[in-house]
Task: inverse folding
């Protein structure tokens, strides 16, 4: 009997292509994110990020579009930006090389700060959701503990479809390790870590 070779779904070629943006959801994301990004304009300038085109709002819109609309790759994302734009970004001529370099150099701490800016809003929103009862075991645990947290770690894989700008990166190199603590009740992140050493044990974050 011939055994089939296992398929790594992370490496499988995507067949999905960007779909028409849901206007209601897009407007809701815009209402949430634009004030959160504006709150960090000063920090953005302190990092000497003077690019007048590939700004924090554009990069945030690009990342959200990659994830939400399941864009197949940077080539498709560049075409999307040039032809129709996405979220709050109007169509504009930007080369794939420029967008690629911006992704490689854009400070992750900016995205982290925007995420943390939104967490209090998400918590307030969760408190209004009275229609979703907590499981009995969670209700019982909350009688004895103020918080119930879930901790987990994951090893991050390096980009496997190399760009020319990443040609010097060894094949099979791992990108590091991520750790996260999530509130079991609200399902919101309490703490996120990122380490460069992929062999680091999760217990180092204790």
Result:
């Amino acid at each position: 009997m011939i055994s089939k070779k296992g398929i790594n779904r992370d490496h499988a070629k995507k067949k999905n292509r960007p779909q028409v943006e849901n206007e209601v959801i897009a407007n809701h994301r815009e209402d949430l994110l634009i004030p959160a990004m504006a709150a960090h304009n000063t920090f953005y300038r302190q990092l000497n990020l003077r690019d007048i085109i590939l700004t924090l709002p554009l990069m945030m819109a690009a990342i959200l579009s990659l994830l939400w609309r399941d864009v197949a790759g940077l080539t498709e994302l560049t075409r999307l930006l040039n032809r129709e734009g996405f979220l709050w970004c109007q169509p504009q001529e930007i080369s794939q090389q420029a967008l690629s370099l911006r992704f490689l150099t854009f400070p992750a701490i900016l995205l982290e700060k925007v995420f943390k800016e939104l967490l209090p809003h998400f918590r307030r929103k969760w408190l209004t959701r009275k229609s979703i009862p907590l499981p009995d075991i969670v209700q019982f645990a909350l009688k004895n503990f103020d918080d119930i947290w879930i901790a987990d770690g994951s090893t991050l894989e390096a980009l496997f479809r190399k760009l020319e700008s990443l040609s010097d990166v060894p094949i099979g190199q791992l990108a590091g390790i991520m750790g996260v603590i999530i509130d079991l009740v609200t399902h919101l992140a309490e703490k996120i870590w990122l380490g460069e050493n992929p062999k680091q044990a999760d217990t180092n974050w204790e």
Summary: The chain has seven helices and three strands.
